[in-house]
Design goal:
Chain lengths: 200, 200
């Protein structure tokens, strides 16, 4: 009788003191959660830095007669496209969000029974952030693809043959932010799996 | 000792047959779930139809000397842009997905205690579809914005002054697919709220 009492109070309901152990074993997934949020922080910060350092200045030849200069210096920067500005904003918010939730996750990492309300809130905000990051990734990818291939139907010329470094940076940002979006979806699934394991 | 036994079986294992009513009232949210999925079906189908009927043919004036024609007929279609093709694919998948999950939802609409595993699976797939729809919305929005405003830095001219009907269709698709993305995120939150209400 003594043995069962200590087992129970440790596992489910410390307030009643003598409840039976629950059917599925209680596992705290906040170790994995914390690791994923750390990865999310690393990916969003690196994508942000790669995006803001993408400025490239090139000499573009002009086809004008002699009084005009032979070539002009033109820069390509991320803030020339609204899609890239949205991406920088989304990455900055995700980076900040990952720090805050990493702290929250670290606080309950050793708690055997973290609050279900907290898991629900995490799903709510992770799902919102996943939507924001996925749409930013889509917008950046869509615009970057035009820059890479051009669009002959509407005579939008490709620019990646001139601004090679700029395009590499944009491409790397799109790839890493895709990873960040996937991490956010995995976090939603992980938190809901925690809730599922605790459901009746 | 008797009291504690009934308490426990009421909380965790209804299959024993003599359980007390569970602490939080069991609410089945599948009515709302079904309505949202119906809305998702309507929005994805209408966005899909608006997108595929967006073809517009215009006479574009040429600035060539007399032997050449004064103007040429050029069409704008959704499949001229990879971003729009991705959107059509995403909308078709979402439309099909909404039908399947609507049926699943209808099957358990009168069940007082639907399976938690089903809720978890719904969160999993809804989160995936939300990511796909959000990225497609972002890609379409990013490309459509260039069509609307152009980009002077890279000399991509706006096309919406010529292809007005095409642009209206693309804009409507982007707006309705944004609604579809939001519905998918709300579905994730609704299912996880169901799980939360059932959690210990």
């Amino acid at each position: 009788m003594d043995v069962s009492t200590t087992q129970d109070s440790g596992k489910t309901a410390p307030e009643t003191g003598y409840s039976a152990p629950p059917p599925p074993p209680m596992v705290n997934y906040f170790g994995v959660d914390f690791a994923l949020r750390l990865l999310l922080f690393a990916s969003s910060l690196s994508a942000l830095l790669v995006m803001v350092t993408s400025k490239q200045t090139e000499l573009i030849p002009t086809s004008l007669p002699p009084p005009f200069p032979v070539s002009v210096s033109r820069a390509a920067k991320f803030n020339h496209s609204p899609a890239f500005i949205y991406m920088v904003a989304a990455l900055a918010v995700t980076c900040f969000y990952s720090i805050v939730t990493m702290l929250t996750s670290a606080l309950v990492i050793s708690n055997p029974l973290p609050s279900a309300k907290m898991l629900f809130n995490m799903i709510l905000f992770d799902a919102l952030m996943a939507g924001v990051m996925a749409s930013a990734t889509g917008a950046t990818g869509g615009v970057a693809y035009i820059g890479l291939k051009g669009n002959s139907h509407v005579r939008w010329n490709k620019i990646c043959n001139v601004y090679d470094k700029f395009c590499r940076h944009i491409g790397a940002t799109a790839a890493v932010s895709l990873v960040a979006s996937i991490i956010l979806v995995v976090l939603v699934v992980l938190s809901s799996y925690s809730l599922y394991r605790r459901s009746r």
